[in-house]
């Protein structure tokens, strides 16, 4: 297990290094002069020189990269050119919205998908299976931003059960904060639950066709007992993969939903930074999101080892 974890940690470190190089080159080298890009075509030369000095662009590419990486390792993400505040503080504030939203949506997705996928596999070919698969097909097809606007119309404007947008902050209490995140979480969870339910059903059906399942059935276990005792755990590997990918998407890809509900999250911060050409914020947030995705993949790999004992014994 330690060897397996060590190899995964080494792969994680290499992936982070490659990602940092790609992000740095894409945002600071490929556009040419970042200062000219941020200020626009009509910027005065003295203004450009002042911004280059402020951003440390007068050094070589190698020196700038080491300075950027060293600052991030110390927790110094630089200062936003647009907001004139430390980027680390901006990210910390927004993360307390995006991370709970992603976890909330993932929890809803899992709670919906697991029973639906298991029940569909257990009732394969029946009316129940057809209804569940039809519902998941509809969930995949419906754009989540359209579903979000529909929920705002129904539950916020007509029924007035929820607010149409905004976030009160966690200092107002967990209840109001979670209530503000409920509609966005449902909008994000719907397509993810549909995908996860279909993967769960397919993985279970594949597992139920294995020889050891037939042996268990021959020993007297019912289909439901064989599914719960033997098939379910062995079908979790592809499901864990999808859950890891979904969490990464929910954390990094909720830009549209955060804008629909006016949530001050990381997605909206990136959108605003791109609109304002604030490369410092974009660079830092993208690197942080890449780090989060790689860490989630590492956690999924560790979950593989827990589910499949064969991985723990590999040399």
Automatic annotation (TrEMBL):
The keyword Cell division does not apply. The chain crosses the membrane at residues 95-118, 130-157, 177-197, 235-257, 285-307. InterPro entries: BPD_transp_1_N, MetI-like, MetI-like_sf. It is found in: Cell membrane. Its main location: membrane. Residues 95-300 form the ABC transmembrane type-1 domain. Keywords: Cell membrane, Membrane, Transmembrane, Transmembrane helix, Transport. One of its GO terms (molecular function) is dipeptide transmembrane transporter activity. It is a multi-pass membrane protein. Belongs to the binding-protein-dependent transport system permease family. This is ABC transporter permease. It comes from Roseovarius bejariae. The lineage of its organism: Bacteria, Pseudomonadati, Pseudomonadota, Alphaproteobacteria, Rhodobacterales.
């Amino acid at each position: 297990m330690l060897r397996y974890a060590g190899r995964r940690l080494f792969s994680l470190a290499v992936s982070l290094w490659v990602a940092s190089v790609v992000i740095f080159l894409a945002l600071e080298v490929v556009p040419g002069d970042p200062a000219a890009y941020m200020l626009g075509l009509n910027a005065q030369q003295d203004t450009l020189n002042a911004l280059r000095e402020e951003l440390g662009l007068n050094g070589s590419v190698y020196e700038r990269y080491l300075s950027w990486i060293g600052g991030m390792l110390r927790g110094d993400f630089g200062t936003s050119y647009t907001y004139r505040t430390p980027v680390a503080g901006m990210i910390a504030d927004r993360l307390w919205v995006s991370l709970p939203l992603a976890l909330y949506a993932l929890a809803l997705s899992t709670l919906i998908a697991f029973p639906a996928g298991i029940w569909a596999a257990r009732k394969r070919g029946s009316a129940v299976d057809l209804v569940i698969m039809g519902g998941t097909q509809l969930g995949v097809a419906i754009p989540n931003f359209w579903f979000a606007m529909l929920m705002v119309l129904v539950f916020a404007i007509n029924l007035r059960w929820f607010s149409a947008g905004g976030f009160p902050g966690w200092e107002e209490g967990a209840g109001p904060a979670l209530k503000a995140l409920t509609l966005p979480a449902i909008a994000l969870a719907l397509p993810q639950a549909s995908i996860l339910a279909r993967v769960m059903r397919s993985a279970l059906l594949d597992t139920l066709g294995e020889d050891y399942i037939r042996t268990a059935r021959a020993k007297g276990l019912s289909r439901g007992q064989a599914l719960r005792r033997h098939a379910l755990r062995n079908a979790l590997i592809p499901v864990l993969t999808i859950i890891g990918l979904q969490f990464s998407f929910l954390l990094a890809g909720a830009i549209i939903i955060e804008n629909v509900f006016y949530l001050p999250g990381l997605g909206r911060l990136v959108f605003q930074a791109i609109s304002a050409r604030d490369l410092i914020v974009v660079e830092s947030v993208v690197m942080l999101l890449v780090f989060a995705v790689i860490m989630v993949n590492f956690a999924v790999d560790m979950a593989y080892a827990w589910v499949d004992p064969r991985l723990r014994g590999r040399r």
